[in-house]
Structure formats: C-alpha cells, structure tokens
Amino acid sequence: MEMKIRRELEFDEFWRYFGECYNSLALRCIAIKDQDTWKNIFITGFLSKKSVDKVREELKQEYQQLVNLKVTEIEGLGIFF
What we know:
Strand order of the largest sheet: 2-1-3
Mean pLDDT: 89
Number of helices: 2
C-alpha cells in the first residue's frame, strides 16, 4: 500500500475533511531564538474528541509542569501551545 502526503494541503482544507471527526486540535512547538527569529525544532499536533475547554485546561497543566521544572527559564528557548 502506498500513501502520499500532500504537503501543499492548507489547514482549512484539512479541517474540512477531518473536522467532523474531531472536536479539537492542539499544537505544541519548541523553538530556539536566533536573533529576531524563532526557529522551529519540534512541533506536534494532536487531534482529539475532547472538548476545546478540556484541551485548554490540559495545556495549562502541562505548561505549569514546565514552569515548575524551570524549563521556561532557559534563555533562547520558546515553548508554544
């Protein structure tokens, strides 16, 4: 079986196909600061049947864990949810 990934797929088109199957999409990104630019080093996306409010609450908890570990204090490192 051969699968092809359409790299030119726009988000609106993607969500038109999958939006009825899922309630939320959560993106997480880690980037480093290079002068005035953020350079992505890692990004993940999670589609979920969970409500948007539930996912937001989980993201807040995950971020607080990073704060507690002092990961958010690393100079030049950006964590985006």
